[in-house]
Design the sequence.
């Protein structure tokens, strides 16, 4: 019976010089059934374009766009510059709503229920449930 070759310490050292961790070598050899030579020499694949987007990601965060939103926009087909600079969906109307004394939560609920964005941002709040009540005497 023929046994599968096991990576040696020398193989792990070569892999480390190539930027491949011990765990990754084991996963490649035992999990993916790669040869030891291939497992220690083939470089790791970085996620697509992550290193190229660092400056755009910084720009996005300056504009109030989180990293997950930035990458989701790119995956959905938006250009990288547009993904970094385009404001969030309700950002403009939220500012208007806050100026009119409407909380962010109330604005979102109104839009969720089908109210137009501008109307949801400008229509005054109901007076029900206010803290001050008239005294009857």
Sequence:
């Amino acid at each position: 019976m023929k046994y599968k070759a096991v990576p040696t310490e020398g193989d792990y050292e070569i892999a480390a010089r190539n930027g491949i961790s011990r765990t990754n070598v084991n996963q490649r050899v035992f999990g993916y059934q790669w040869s030891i030579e291939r497992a220690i020499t083939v470089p790791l694949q970085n996620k697509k374009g992550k290193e190229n987007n660092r400056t755009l990601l910084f720009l996005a965060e300056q504009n109030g766009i989180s990293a997950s939103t930035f990458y989701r926009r790119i995956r959905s087909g938006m250009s990288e510059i547009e993904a970094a600079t385009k404001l969030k969906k309700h950002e403009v109307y939220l500012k208007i709503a806050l100026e009119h004394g409407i909380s962010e939560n109330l604005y979102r609920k109104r839009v969720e229920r089908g109210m137009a964005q501008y109307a949801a941002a400008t229509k005054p709040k109901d007076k029900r449930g206010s803290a001050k009540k008239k005294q009857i005497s």
Notes: The longest helix spans residues 22-31. The chain has a mean pLDDT of 86. The CA atoms of residues 12 and 23 lie 10 Å apart.
